[in-house]
Amino acid sequence: MAVDYFMHEKIWFEKYKYDDAERRFYEQMNGPVSSSSQQQSASTTSGPAGDQNELLSRISHLEVENQNLRSVVADLQMAIFKLESRLNALEKSSTSHQPSPVPPTQKVEPFSVPSKKVELPSASPAKKAEPAAAEEDDDDDIDLFGSDDEEEDQEAAKVREERLRQYAEKKAKKPGLIAKSSILLDVKPWDDETDMVKMEECVRSIHMDGLVWGASKLVPVGYGIKKLQIQCVVEDDKVGTDILEEEITKFEDYVQSVDIAAFNKI
Questions:
Q1: Which residues face 264 on adjacent strands?
Q2: How far is the CA of 79 from the CAs of 76, 82, 87, 90, 93, in angstroms?
Q3: Kind of pairing, strands 105-108 and 255-265?
Q4: Which pLDDT band, with edges at 50, 70 and 90, does 167 fall under?
Q5: Tens digit of each residue's pLDDT (9 = 90 or more) over 33-87
Q6: Among candidate residues 178, 244, 167, 254, the one with its CA nearest the CA of residue 213
Q7: 8 A C-beta contact, residue 265 and residue 181
Q8: What is the DSSP letter of 243?
Q9: How does 79-108 read in b/e, with b if 16+ C-beta sit within 10 Å?
Q10: Averaged over 160-176, what is the pLDDT?
Q11: Residue pLDDT, tens place only, 8-18
């Protein structure tokens, strides 16, 4: 069974014969090759020698980069040294050019002339102008232009006061804003037999300064009962919600209660 099975399989049973024949052919062409030399050649081609060559190449590349970096660092150090030397030279020159402090007064004593105080000119013109102005004030007691300045100041003050007075009058005449509110009231009757038309007439009969009635409608509540929903606009300073509710609830025959459904500022 096994032999029949292998007969149908495509297996090369005689491959070693062809390998030996190929080896003998190449030995006749190139001469016999020892096994040790074959192993050495294989180890040199595919062994650690290839890794060593790659490592050596990387090391040489890193050495070149290291040399380049060293040269760049040396150039930077030289530039920093030059900058420091220039800064030191500038500092020395700035300190050497600073003027020495000059005393305010200096005594000069010639041989034949009595001692006199010689005042050197001051550096600031403002200090020089102040004593000159003081001397002029001491010499001239009369100010020729002072009266004109005082008259101009008085006229400017009068004009300013007049303008302020006109502005105050104009502002007082201007009417201020009146705060108003829009209120939506729910007026509820006693029962379904209440005359809603008469109740609305009673509510609208309320007249106050700052009260304006608006639109109204009947809103069903339940069990055949309807409530009166009426809108009004009031001035906040003149009409309050409490006063408005009290006036409406005075109609006891028609009104059971009053509620505020909505309240909005205008």
A1: 182
A2: 5, 5, 12, 17, 21
A3: unpaired
A4: confident
A5: 555 555 555 454 445 566 778 888 888 889 999 999 999 999 999 999 999 999 9
A6: 244
A7: yes
A8: H
A9: eeeeeeeeeeeeeeeeeeeeeeeeeeeeee
A10: 79
A11: 566 666 777 77
DSSP class of residue 194? S
Span 158-178, average pLDDT: 80
Tell me the average pLDDT across 148-173: 80
One-letter identity of residue 223: Y
Higher confidence at residue 6 or residue 68?
68
Find the helix packing angle between 48-96 and 35-46, rounded to 10°: 30
Report the DSSP pairing between strands 255-265 and 225-235. unpaired
CA distance readout (Å), 41 to 35, 46, 263: 10, 9, 106
pLDDT score of 264 more than 70:
yes
CA–CA dist 108, 117 (Å, integer): 7
Bridge partner list, 220: 226
DSSP 234: E
The secondary structure of 115-148 as a DSSP string is: -EEEEPPPS-HHHHHHHHHHHHHHH----TTHHH
Q: Could you tell me if 244 and 182 are in contact, meaning their C-beta atoms sit under 8 angstroms apart? A: no
Cβ(208)–Cβ(235) under 8 Å?
Answer: no
Here the tokens at position 169 are 């009058």
